[in-house]
Amino acid sequence: MRYRTLGASGLRVSEVVLGAMTFGEQGGVGAPIAECRRILDAYAEAGGNTIDTAVNYRGGLSEEILGELLAGRRESFVVGSKYTVTRDRNDPNAAGNARKNLRASLEISLRRLRTDYLDVYWVHMWDRATPIEETMRALDDAVRAGKVLYVGISDAPAWVAARANTLASFHGWSPFVGLQVPYSLLQRDAERELLPMAEALGLGVTAWSPLGGGVLSGKYSGAGPAAAGSRLDPGSVDERSHRVAREVGAVAAERGVSSAAVAIAWTRARSEAVLPILGARSAAQLADNLGALDVTLTDEECKRLEATTGFTLGFPHDFIAETSPWVFGAADV
């Protein structure tokens, strides 16, 4: 395991993040606490030090389990949690990114995790009803109070994150140092605006669902064993997804590694800013995913995988690339 700083901060994080959304059996398929312990121990033994959870994961059970499992070794980990999603559907102020929900959610997360601070506190997703100024100021207050060390934003438009950090710079508030987005061969939308923005502004990118909901592990396309208790109905996987998964499986077979390892390795090859989030329901599944650390894809392999996705950047990116010779003439490089 290697380490890097998260964005422009000095916080050292491992090159893959452990996602704890699977911790707990509440609300569907998940891992019991005994298996969660094995997962966390295996991750730590591999050198991993960064954990991602949220106030709403498994109805709060994810944070509670982590709090118990981290007892006595909390300082060895970079612990991040998120807020935004409603904690009480009957209370309009128990949701969103307003100061009131931020304060209440943070206190709940700290209590469940049995800690007096979070290394990273993430805005879970953009809340159109709350001014970004209010959110940034409230996050800065939490940092100044010592309850949060760094802040990040998840699932938001690039312009929102850029505007937020511009405001933070102008006012002397704590800026976002991280961006969290879905990113895989099946979902490359982040390449249009979000990844370029993160790279330009110095944000680390934690990528969730690098296996495309498990599709890229090959479990639905004949490139790997079918898994019990999967979140997806095999019949819901479209032909494009099957095509991409089969190509991932072909590259994996040539290398003698798992499809999951190849799919995760691709996310890391695309940008140095990307830190894949590994969400596992068993220690064996985590070990399979950690195989990505030993896989460095060639440019040819990356192009081969990407060719199956049918992805284009779209306007204005393709238009700018096409008209570049016209704009710059002989100066075009």
In brief:
With 333 residues, this protein is of the alpha/beta class. Mean pLDDT is 94; it is low at 223-230. Helix content is 39%, strand content 15%.
Give the biggest beta sheet: 8 strands, parallel, barrel
CATH class: Alpha Beta
| Structural Rg | 20 Å
The oligomeric state is single chain
Q: What is the molecular shape?
A: globular
The termini sit apart by: 38 Å
Number of strands: 10
Biggest β-sheet: strands ordered side by side in the sheet: 3-4-5-6-7-8-9-10
Share of helix, binned:
25-40%
What is the CATH superfamily?
NADP-dependent oxidoreductase domain
Q: Residue ranges: pLDDT <50 for 5 or more in a row?
A: 223-230
What does this structure look like?
The structure is a single chain. By secondary structure, the protein is of the alpha/beta class. 39% of the residues lie in helices and 15% in strands. It contains 11 helices and 10 strands. The strands form 2 sheets. An 8-stranded parallel β-barrel has the order 3-4-5-6-7-8-9-10, surrounded by 6 helices. A two-stranded antiparallel sheet has the order 1-2. Helix 4 crosses helix 5. The longest helix has 17 residues, at 239-255. It is globular, with a radius of gyration of 20 Å.
Task: Pick out its properties.
alpha/beta, 11 helices, 8-stranded parallel β-barrel, TIM Barrel, 15% strand, 333 residues
What topology emerges from the helices and strands here?
Layout: E1 3-5, E2 12-14, E3 17-19, H1 33-45, E4 50-52, H2 61-69, E5 78-83, H3 99-113, E6 118-123, H4 132-144, E7 148-154, H5 158-171, E8 176-182, H6 194-201, E9 204-208, H7 239-255, H8 259-270, E10 274-279, H9 283-290, H10 299-307, H11 317-328
Parallel strand pairs: 3-4, 3-10, 4-5, 5-6, 6-7, 7-8, 8-9, 9-10
Antiparallel strand pairs: 1-2
Helix pairs in contact: 1-9, 2-3, 4-5, 7-8, 7-10
